[in-house]
């Protein structure tokens, strides 16, 4: 019958026997329908009070009879329901007697609900062969607003934190969870817990509990089909409210009494708020209400056992207890439901969990990879200025033999960081170029070297190399008349004008740097810009040089474009005079024979003109100047 509890907190009332034969009972009538009538025996004219509960147990009711009425409720734990049984009442009214037994659970005689409940659960567990149960026990107390583990050896130092779980409820993850296999295990644990529980004598009770104790039984079941159930049973023995003038509590007892009364007051507030269906329920006002939140306002099946002392002297407390219990009986609970899962649902949930974890792992890997990439990029960016020494702004003409540490006939010690440079950073038709050492020329910073592989087609002169740049300065050797030739040629502009070559190529070496060190795109882009600048400067200078002479020879020719060198003999529109002048000029500068007309006309300058040929000649010019050794 109780198993069908729906809606409200159930309330039973138990009346303890008169302890003092001289006292007059305040209980006038107990009905079979759960009603009770009380009055103050010392004030006969006062109004009689009637209360109605689910059950009333008189002074002669035995422990077994009490348990029998609660058995079905307790058994529902085995079916997956959460259950809570609360013993409430003034000090000395018999709460501990009901829950633990006559001597507070320290004797195996006349055992209380706690032990009988666990014993019963084992009986059910054994009788249900198709379900395998795992039963574990926790036992804690709330003493002076601190949660202590009663199953731990040193309870006073074991203060537990109440944690909020994902479903918004509170639990005690650090409380010792003891598996129990038999009733004797339960008995051992309960004796241990009761031994540790705070108690002390007062004027109202020789062995007064000074704390709220909570015994929690966790039941997990799994049947042969794989269906699982998970539930818990809270068995709560509250400390009793007391009037300190009557209990004569002083010192520690007084402090305990104050904490007890305060937390019971918080419990009363929660019950009142729940009964009035307030939007805010003050669960967090005390440890007791936090821990009982799910039992008072959740979907558990909750039973309150209100205890009263029949003595007329305790009439005020009895009235208070009955009022409290009646208010509690009006508290509407959520519909209790079994915490059961079929095998299919459980498997699906497990799959969902596995997928969630896999997704989380992937997300984590992705984010850490991103982080790593960012770190590497920022490190490289930091290292970049160290790799690239300050760049001189002026070209100087020096002999390469003056280079420090160079060994004739040997390649550079460390061709340094080789980089494959995608010339998409330069012109669209540029190609990737391989870096090799650069003629042992020590340069401030970088060496930009052109090789025949730089353009789409060979330039024609294998040794054509240009070491240039406004910021990558090299040393040149000039022939004896090199300087005048050089001046005449206009190449000195190269020194003052940042040179750019569209062939740049892109092999960027940094002397005295680890050869395998690769520069990142930032470096590449920077080199490409410098290369492009250099190329334009070279072309501009050579353009000036060539067109300058052309202008002298052909005063009426169209204005030359300095940046565009049109030395192509077959260039449409170029006059033969101009072309010849150019060829002569080129030959005088480079000492090379005139380029063959069959030479490829394509270049990396967008393939529009035979600038590769021009460039090779330009390069040859520079290389010639560079490699020329001064006469002794
Ligand atoms: N139904 C009962 N039959 C016989 N004796 C009882 C009964 N209920 C309580 N007593 C006795 O009354 C005394 C006080 O009971 P108990 O210690 O259980 O009260 P309590 O409500 O737990 O008090 P406190 O709140 O101070 O701990 C005990 O000696 C107990 O044996």
TrEMBL record:
Residue ranges constituting the Kinesin motor domain according to the UniProt record: 8-331
Q: Residue spans with biased composition (Polar residues)?
A: 555-581
Q: Which GO terms describe its biological process?
A: microtubule-based movement
Binding residue positions for ATP = 89-96
**Stretches the record annotates as Disordered:** 370-431, 507-615
Query: What is the protein name given in its UniProt record?
Result: Kinesin motor domain-containing protein
Q: Which InterPro entries match?
A: Kinesin-like_fam (IPR027640), Kinesin_motor_dom (IPR001752), Kinesin_motor_dom_sf (IPR036961), P-loop_NTPase (IPR027417)
Question: What PANTHER family does UniProt report for this protein, alphabetically?
Answer: KINESIN-LIKE PROTEIN KIN-14L (PTHR47972:SF4), KINESIN-LIKE PROTEIN KLP-3 (PTHR47972)
* UniProt-listed SMART domains: KISc
**Which residue ranges have biased composition labelled Basic and acidic residues?**
422-431
Provide an example Pfam family for this protein.
Kinesin
Q: Name one GO molecular function term.
A: ATP binding
> Which GO cellular component does the record give, naming just one?
microtubule
Keyword annotations: ATP-binding, Coiled coil, Microtubule, Motor protein, Nucleotide-binding
Tell me which family the UniProt entry assigns to this protein: Belongs to the TRAFAC class myosin-kinesin ATPase superfamily. Kinesin family.
Coiled-coil residue spans = 338-365
């Amino acid at each position: 019958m109780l198993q069908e509890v729906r809606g409200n907190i159930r309330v039973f009332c138990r009346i303890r026997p008169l302890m003092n034969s001289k006292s007059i009972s305040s209980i006038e009538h107990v009905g079979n329908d759960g009603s009770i009538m009380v009055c103050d025996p010392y004030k006969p004219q006062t109004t009689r009070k009637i209360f109605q509960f689910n059950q009333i147990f008189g002074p002669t009711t035995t422990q077994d009879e009490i348990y029998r009425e609660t058995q079905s409720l307790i058994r529902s734990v085995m079916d997956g329901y959460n259950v809570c049984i609360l013993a409430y009442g003034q000090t000395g009214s018999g709460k501990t007697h009901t829950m633990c037994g006559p001597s507070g659970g320290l004797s195996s005689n006349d055992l209380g609900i706690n032990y009988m409940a666990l014993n019963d659960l084992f009986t059910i567990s054994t009788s249900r062969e198709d379900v395998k149960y795992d039963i574990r026990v926790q036992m804690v107390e709330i003493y002076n607003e601190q949660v202590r583990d009663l199953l731990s050896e040193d309870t006073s130092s074991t203060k537990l934190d109440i944690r909020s779980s994902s479903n918004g409820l509170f639990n005690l993850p650090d409380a010792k969870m003891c598996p129990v296999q038999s009733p004797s295990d339960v008995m051992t644990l309960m004796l241990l817990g009761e031994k540790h529980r705070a108690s002390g004598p007062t004027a109202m009770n020789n062995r007064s509990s000074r704390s709220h104790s909570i015994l929690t039984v966790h039941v997990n079941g799994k049947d042969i089909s794989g269906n699982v159930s998970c539930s818990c049973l809270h068995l709560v023995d509250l400390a009793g409210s007391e009037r300190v003038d009557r209990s004569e509590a002083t010192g520690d007892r007084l402090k305990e009494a104050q904490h007890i009364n305060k937390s019971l007051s918080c419990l009363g507030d929660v019950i009142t708020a729940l009964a009035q269906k307030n939007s805010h329920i003050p669960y967090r006002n005390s440890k007791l209400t936090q821990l009982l939140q799910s039992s008072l306002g959740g979907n558990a099946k909750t039973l309150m056992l209100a205890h009263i002392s029949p003595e007329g002297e305790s009439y005020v407390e009895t009235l208070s207890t009955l009022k409290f219990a009646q208010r509690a009986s009006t508290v509407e609970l959520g519909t209790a439901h079994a915490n059961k899962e079929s095998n299919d649902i459980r498997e699906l949930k497990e799959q969902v969990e596995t997928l969630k974890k896999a997704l989380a792992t992937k997300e984590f890997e992705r984010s850490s990879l991103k982080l790593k990439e960012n770190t590497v990029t920022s490190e490289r960016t930091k290292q970049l200025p160290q790799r690239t020494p300050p760049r001189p702004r002026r070209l100087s003409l020096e002999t390469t033999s003056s280079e420090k540490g160079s060994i004739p006939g040997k390649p550079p010690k460390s061709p340094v960081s080789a980089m494959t440079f995608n010339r998409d950073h330069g012109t669209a038709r540029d190609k990737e170029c391989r870096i090799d050492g650069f003629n042992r020329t020590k340069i401030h910073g970088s060496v930009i070297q052109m090789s025949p592989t730089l353009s789409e087609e060979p330039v024609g002169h294998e040794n054509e190399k240009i070491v240039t740049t406004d910021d990558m300065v090299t040393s040149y050797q000039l022939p004896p008349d090199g300087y005048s030739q050089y001046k005449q040629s206009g190449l000195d502009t190269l020194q003052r004008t940042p040179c750019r070559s569209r062939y740049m190529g892109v092999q960027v070496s940094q002397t005295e740097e680890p050869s395998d060190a690769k520069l990142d795109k930032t470096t590449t882009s920077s080199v490409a810009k410098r290369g492009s600048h250099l190329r334009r400067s070279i072309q501009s200078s050579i353009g000036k040089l060539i067109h300058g002479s052309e202008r002298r020879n052909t005063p009426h020719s169209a204005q030359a474009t300095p940046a565009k060198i049109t030395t192509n003999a077959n260039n449409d529109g170029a006059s033969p005079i101009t072309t010849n002048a150019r060829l002569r000029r080129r030959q005088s500068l480079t000492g090379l024979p005139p380029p063959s007309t069959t030479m490829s006309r394509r270049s990396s300058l967008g393939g529009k003109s035979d600038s590769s040929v021009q460039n090779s000649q330009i390069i040859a010019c520079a290389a010639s100047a560079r490699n020329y050794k001064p006469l002794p």
